[in-house]
Amino acid sequence: MGALHAGHGALVARARRENDICAASIFVNPKQFGPGEDFESYPRTEDADLAMLRDLGSDLVLIGTNEDLYPEEFATRVELKGPLVTAAEGARRPTHFAGVTTVVAKLFGLFEPTRAYFGWKDMQQLLVIRRMVDDLSIPVEVVGCEIVREDDGVAMSSRNRYLDREARMRAPKIHEALVLAARAWQGGERRAERLRAMVREHLHGFDLEYVELRSTSSFEELQDPVGPGRILVVARMETTRLLDNYPLDSLSEGTATVHSDDVRGSTP
Amino acid sequence: MGALHAGHGALVARARRENDICAASIFVNPKQFGPGEDFESYPRTEDADLAMLRDLGSDLVLIGTNEDLYPEEFATRVELKGPLVTAAEGARRPTHFAGVTTVVAKLFGLFEPTRAYFGWKDMQQLLVIRRMVDDLSIPVEVVGCEIVREDDGVAMSSRNRYLDREARMRAPKIHEALVLAARAWQGGERRAERLRAMVREHLHGFDLEYVELRSTSSFEELQDPVGPGRILVVARMETTRLLDNYPLDSLSEGTATVHSDDVRGSTP
């Protein structure tokens, strides 16, 4: 959706490295925004995005208008059913994932990619897309890439720019809380309620929408004793929802090899 | 869906002629049957189907079980919205087209075909699939093939075998009625109500579900003065719904060149 930051940069850099041709799309997809969400105000930074993609060696950028992607006669929806899309983000944003799967299916039709790169930041989205790809036998490998963070640990997000100074100062505690829980898991703590409580306690004073432990394949909630997976949190700061998640174990990272050295530091 | 007849044969023969590799699928797709429809009793003639496909030179046949196509974790639906799927067949079979688009999207993912061949017999289905392909930018050319008929004019259908002797004897009147209306259009009749009435009068005594005049691109109903398009009829004979349609003009045939000589005569 543009408003690119170093997290997107890591996806492009890896795609560039692992493939002969590397393409990107910039399209603020109205179908994945609900009523009252920030479609109108979503940051649009096309010139900076194009400069960044050029620097990273992207061969092709699709910049679609709404009319390009969804002409008047457009009538198709690609939609999942069941807990994978009704849990977590799906419970708060009931039309969101249908908007994502519809546009991603179309982008896969347009690009016919061998591999497509998505971040673990939107973990549920990544698993929804993998489910769609498996279900429709779309011939693409969906590569999950580990979350890229600011120096203070805040997960990169196009929506971080909505935060005021005070909120941005508090935001690193989200990542700290997740790391605390992961360390506890690595130290042998297998009780889901204890791991979640640890996050809630560290984030005392935050407006938390949910803290959950989930499988990195099925997205099912992890039951006691909690096995490998990721711990997720959504904190609301003013009107901005900050999503973050963290692997309990190194095996639950996005990929066997995390190229965290691809991109460093702050947003461009 | 198997139970192949010479109409299917014409699709395969044409695909064989126009492509280097020719593939077919046989799968009685439960998702496109509604409650109370004939999923359980739908004819299954796998040995004969395979012999026919071999004779026609098909290189590959996918024979899927329900578990192959829809494993337990399957959660995706590809679905159209709007008049293209709520009119005509969609009004009688509200879940039908979502079942069709879901399985066809998956078959396109599995086969990655350059061209896919569908009959004008299921005209609405053909246009629904074209809409899906355009909407999702699926890189396939959807080729419409003209209806293949028995010597007495009855449109070939796997469900014709449900007809008893008396119903089968009356069935050719359906095609006759459509030809009458097409001739009247060619003779200058442009009033939709007159053209439809002509079909109803010729089919006096039949249980008609609908008689409609529709565009071969948008499937919209043709308004006075009726331009090029096709006239459709659905007649119910006992529990069997017989669908047929006919071009008002030669330009509304499935393709510029109709290879009606591909396949002749009766079902194998």
Overview of the structural elements:
Two copies of one chain form a homodimer. Chain A is of the alpha/beta class and 268 residues long. The first copy, chain A, folds into two domains: 140 residues, HUPs (Rossmann fold); 95 residues, Pantoate-beta-alanine ligase, C-terminal domain (Pantoate--beta-alanine Ligase, Chain: A,domain 2, 2-Layer Sandwich), CATH 3.30.1300. The first copy, chain A, is built from ten helices and eight strands. Chain A has a three-stranded antiparallel beta sheet with strand order 6-7-8, with helices on one face. In chain A, helix 6 crosses helix 7 and helix 9 runs antiparallel to helix 10. Strand 3 of chain A pairs antiparallel with strand 3 of chain B, so a sheet runs across the interface.
* CATH fold type of the largest domain in chain A: Rossmann fold
> For the largest interface in this structure, which chains are involved and how many residues does each contribute?
A-B, 27 and 27 residues
Residue ranges of chain A: pLDDT <50 for 5 or more in a row?
254-268
DSSP summary, beta strand count of chain A: 8
Give the SSE order of chain A as H and E letters. Answer: HEHEHEHHHEHEHHHEEE
* CATH C-level category of the largest domain in chain A: Alpha Beta
Count of discrete structural domains of chain A = 2
Biggest sheet overview of chain A: 3 strands, antiparallel
What does the radius of gyration of chain A come to?
Answer: 18 Å
Q: What's the quaternary structure here? A: homodimer
Report, as a whole number of angstroms, the end-to-end distance of chain A: 16 Å
Helix and strand composition category of chain A: alpha/beta
Q: What is the overall shape of chain A? A: globular
Largest sheet, spatial ordering of strands of chain A: 6-7-8
Q: Would you tell me the overall average pLDDT of chain A? A: 93
> What's the CATH H-level homologous superfamily of the largest domain in chain A?
HUPs
Number of helices of chain A: 10
CATH architecture of the largest domain in chain A: 3-Layer(aba) Sandwich
Helix content of chain A: 25-40%
